[in-house]
Amino acid sequence: MAQKTKAAAKPKKMPTFAWEGKDKKGNSIKGESVAANPMLVKADLRRQGITPSKVKKKSELFASANKKSIKPGDIAVFSRQLATMISSGVPIVQAFDIIGKGHDNPSMQELVMAIKNDVEQGNTLAESMAKHPRYFDELFVNLIDAGEQSGALESLLDKIATYKEKTESIKKKIKKALFYPTAVLVVAFVVTTILLIWVVPQFAELFKGFGAELPAFTKFVLALSDLFIEYWYLIFGGIILGVFAFIEAKRRSHKFNYFLDRLMIRIPIIGSILNKAAIARFARTLSTMFAAGVPLVDSLTSVAGAAGNIVYSNAILQMKDNVSTGQQLQLAMKQTNLFPSMVVQMVAIGEESGSIDTMLTKVADFYEEEVDAAVDGLSSLLEPLIMVILGVLVGGLVIAMYLPIFQLGQVVG
Known about the structure:
The protein is mainly alpha-helical. The protein has helices at about 1-10, 40-45, 60-65, 70-85, 90-100, 105-120, 125-130, 140-150, 155-205, 215-250, 255-265, 270-290, 295-305, 310-325, 330-335, 340-355, 355-410, and strands spanning about 15-20, 30-35, 50-55. Strands 2-1-3 form a three-stranded antiparallel sheet. A hairpin with a 5-residue loop joins strand 1 and strand 2. The longest helix has about 55 residues, at about 355-410. The termini are far apart.
């Protein structure tokens, strides 16, 4: 059993071969191909009417230098490309071949060609994708499996592509919303540190010859400067250690993630955006699962995993338990106290009319537009706020340094 698993994992990292040969007209040509071994490269070239004269495996050292990581956006684009080709009547193996060879990212090429090889060996598309859980989650695989079993893979691929595009768009908007506050804090800290460590000490040397009592504000800034200069290693070490501890806690602790997600959705303005994004994601995912014909209880399990927020994930799992006992979806949603009345009413109408997927799609569209508008509004609000915060910090330090000079001028006058 272990040998079978190991053998199935081999196609994940296929080497790249550089080849040279001649076409049907006798012209010399060369190129690169991704395959499991040189024999497959030669066979593929002969099918194209090319007589190979040299096939050589590219050095792993140079190949790894050109590799890029596979991002969720790459999977979204791949989903759309595959949906477009399948709907155009291109055979699935040929579609993978075209997509794989046409991709700029060698890592993505390897992934696509590995799936293609698995499909050629007789595996289903869902089974082939399930071997790469890092890029194709349970939700993605379940939808592909439903499409294959129902014979509606073409339409399901289109729905998956739309789903991936919408969810990635939401993620980008959330990152954009969180980026500005983080940027304000980082820039403010960097500017303040530079002034305290390099600029303020120059004024401190000047003030030593004044022979007069310095203003309290100036004394405070000078003391803060001395603190930064003397204990800079502790300050920066503490920040680095704090960031590392935060990352590790987020990676390992479920309780910490729950606390963080719960805190984030309660923050003014940003919390509203995160709540709307979570609702949009819930509605988009569940509508896609419904359209694929996946049972409600099974759908809610996958939706919980794709919620993007542990508070909502836990609530959706609770909804699943309630629905499995015969409770209506709209009543289970209402009991979580997370979903607005409008969303609950839309789902109730969908349950009564038998069109839950349609209603959920409308909810997703509405909240995605809400997130878009909220992020744009937040950006407009934070741009002047950044200038105000930096102005207060830098201006405050400048005033603190020039107050003794102004007082000296008054005394001399």
